[in-house]
């Protein structure tokens, strides 16, 4: 009989839905986990790219007859996707346009986009109308950008074949607003004539996301509220990622051209040169290339950097993280992310790396983010210069970096995750069994992080935990809130994947880790009333935060030989079933 057949609960993270993590067993759904996280989040997907929440904030995104304006609109036109969902926009006099004016919820860095094709008019003007307009003019006959007016951030045109283009414009949105579309001639002047349009969109960020059609409400997708994360950071097999609440205090984590970021040159150092549009760890062209140059000076005052001060922070540990790679010049930059002038050297390669720097802010006040070159540090040669790509700044309170939290004008909080509610009394055996988990911690932060079979309280439970002792993991069995067995082990590194199994049976308890018996206990009783599996201690406290590659529960006390196989070579044996 296979281990799958012997088990009563099997979770190998592969299937999820909003609010649910699906188990492979029981097959009737009794083993599925309830999941909550009332904010968006990010993950590393199977392609190795950062994946975010997606959205379309622009209402009636392909129902242009529900927009306002003077041009005539005719539906049923052949679209860029081969459908009949495109529209013919016909302006019968100069300066006619269609518009949506219910977009006052737009805030921060925003990108609007639309698919367009020339008709009798050779161009299109895309306008975001606010206190200071952003405008984009496109020659649809040639597929080129004619021009753009500030304060837009970035502009792009993508050829999607058959004369169709997706055009996009990024800007900072605020105040009273509307989105407008005009037909123009090839030089951008409004004229009488027709163009074809389809599938408009607005989303936060510096690039257009995959299109989602809206009607009367905005749409959100991807890793949005209450969507569990199957994360591929460390391998080709996903892990269920569970993290605590964290806030990214950097107001513009990607828009480095914003006024939040100071661009400094001190002494002979020159202010850094920023160019937008490099491919990022998202696999999209939304990273910056930056050239830092400290000039020919020889003193420690020669600097070239980008920086910002973030005030009002409590004393404690802060972790700065960002992605960077080098394309020319020295292979080093320096960074700091807390009070004082403690700089860390970052050794760049030609591949994206995430750098993580933890520092302590001794007293409440401002936290300083500072990236670039500084004479006298990092063994910099004279005339030190580097051209590098940088993306995704994050500054969070805590001793380690968590997954990326994008920001577009203000700090953003990702709420903590809760995963529990799997199983019932029929799933678990009070008198004997095995709890197996393949897990790793997010960090050795010396807090209790628990997963357990329980009765909904902390009184009756079988659990394993990372403890407050450095790199320690322990398994504990309790009944009547009285400890029956407690076996612990010091791991080499609790952030590395470990296969852990605890056997519980009256007077027969054992802990196995990575194919080896760690300890046994031959005296004790077992819990009663077990009816729930949760990633906490049973009552919602001491949540497990980490990576979960699999969970198995057995209603029989497996032999030592089975436990050795289960924790040593289980992946190979399971994949062969």
* Strand elements, count: 45
Could you give the distance between the termini?
10 Å
Beta-strand content: over 45%
Main sheet specs: 8 strands, antiparallel
Radius of gyration from CA coordinates = 28 Å
Nearest-integer average pLDDT? 94
Number of helices: 2
Class by alpha and beta content: mainly beta
The outline comes out as globular
Helix percentage: under 10%
Low-pLDDT residue intervals, each spanning 5 or more residues: 571-577
Quick tags:
577 residues; mainly beta; 6-stranded antiparallel sheet; 45 strands; globular; disordered C terminus
3D structure, described in words:
Helix content is 3%, strand content 49%. It is mainly β.
Helix and strand arrangement:
Blueprint: H1 3-6, E1 7-11, E2 15-17, E3 20-22, E4 33-36, E5 43-44, E6 50-51, E7 53-56, E8 68-69, E9 72-77, E10 86-91, E11 98-100, E12 108-118, E13 123-129, E14 134-139, E15 144-149, E16 154-161, E17 164-173, E18 178-184, E19 193-204, E20 219-222, E21 230-231, E22 239-242, E23 246-248, E24 262-266, E25 270-278, E26 287-293, E27 303-313, E28 316-329, E29 332-336, E30 344-347, E31 353-361, E32 365-374, E33 385-397, E34 412-414, E35 418-420, E36 432-441, E37 449-454, E38 461-466, E39 472-479, E40 482-490, E41 498-505, E42 509-513, E43 516-521, E44 532-534, E45 546-554, H2 560-575
């Amino acid at each position: 009989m296979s281990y799958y057949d012997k088990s009563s609960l099997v979770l190998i993270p592969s299937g999820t839905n909003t609010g649910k993590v699906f188990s492979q067993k029981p097959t009737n759904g009794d083993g599925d986990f309830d999941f909550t996280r009332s904010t968006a989040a990010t993950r590393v997907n199977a392609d190795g790219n950062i994946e975010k929440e997606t959205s379309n904030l622009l209402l009636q995104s392909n129902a242009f007859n529900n927009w306002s304006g003077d041009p005539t609109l005719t539906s049923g036109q052949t679209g860029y996707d081969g459908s009949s969902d495109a529209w013919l926009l016909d302006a019968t006099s100069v300066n006619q346009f269609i518009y949506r004016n219910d977009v006052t919820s737009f805030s921060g860095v925003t990108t609007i986009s639309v698919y367009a094709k020339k008709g009798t008019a050779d161009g299109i003007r895309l306008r975001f109308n606010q206190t200071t307009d952003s405008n984009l003019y496109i020659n649809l006959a040639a597929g080129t950008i004619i021009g753009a007016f500030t304060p837009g951030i970035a502009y792009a045109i993508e050829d999607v074949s058959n004369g169709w283009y997706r055009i996009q414009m990024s800007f900072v949105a605020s105040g009273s607003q509307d989105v407008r579309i005009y037909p123009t001639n090839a030089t951008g002047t409004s004229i009488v004539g027709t163009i074809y349009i389809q599938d408009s969109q607005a989303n936060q960020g510096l690039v257009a996301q995959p299109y989602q059609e809206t009607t009367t409400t905005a749409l959100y997708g991807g890793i949005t509220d209450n969507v569990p994360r199957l994360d591929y950071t460390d391998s080709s097999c996903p892990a269920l990622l569970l993290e605590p609440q964290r806030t990214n205090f950097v107001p513009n984590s990607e828009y480095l051209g914003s006024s939040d970021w100071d661009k400094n040159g001190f002494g002979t150092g020159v202010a850094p040169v920023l160019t937008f549009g490099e491919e990022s760890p998202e696999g999209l062209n939304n990273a910056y290339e930056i050239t830092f140059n400290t000039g020919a000076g020889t003193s420690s005052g020669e600097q070239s950097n980008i920086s910002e001060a973030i005030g009002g922070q409590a004393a404690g540990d802060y972790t700065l993280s960002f992605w960077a790679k080098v394309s020319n010049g020295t292979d080093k930059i320096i960074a700091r992310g807390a009070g004082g002038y403690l700089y860390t050297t970052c050794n760049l390669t030609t591949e994206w790396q995430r750098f993580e720097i933890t520092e302590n802010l001794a007293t409440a006040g401002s936290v300083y983010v500072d990236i670039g070159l500084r004479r006298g540090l990092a063994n910099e040669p004279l005339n030190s210069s580097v051209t590098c790509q940088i993306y995704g700044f994050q500054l969070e309170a805590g001793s380690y970096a968590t997954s990326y939290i994008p920001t577009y004008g203000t700090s953003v909080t990702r709420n903590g995750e809760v995963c529990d509610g799997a199983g019932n009394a029929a799933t678990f055996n009070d008198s004997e069994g095995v709890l197996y988990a393949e897990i790793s911690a997010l960090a050795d932060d010396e807090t209790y992080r628990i997963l357990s079979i329980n009765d909904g309280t902390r009184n009756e439970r079988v659990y394993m935990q990372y403890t407050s002792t450095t790199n320690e993991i322990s398994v504990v069995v309790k009944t009547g809130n009285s400890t029956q067995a407690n076996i612990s082990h010091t791991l080499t590194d609790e952030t590395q994947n470990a296969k852990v199994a605890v056997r519980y049976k009256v007077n027969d308890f054992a802990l196995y880790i990575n194919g080896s018996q760690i300890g046994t206990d031959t005296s004790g009783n077992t819990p009663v009333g077990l009816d729930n599996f949760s990633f906490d201690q049973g009552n919602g406290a001491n949540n497990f935060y980490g990576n979960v590659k699999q969970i198995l529960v057995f209603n029989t006390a497996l032999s030592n030989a089975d436990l050795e196989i289960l924790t040593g070579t289980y992946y190979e044996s399971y994949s062969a079933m």
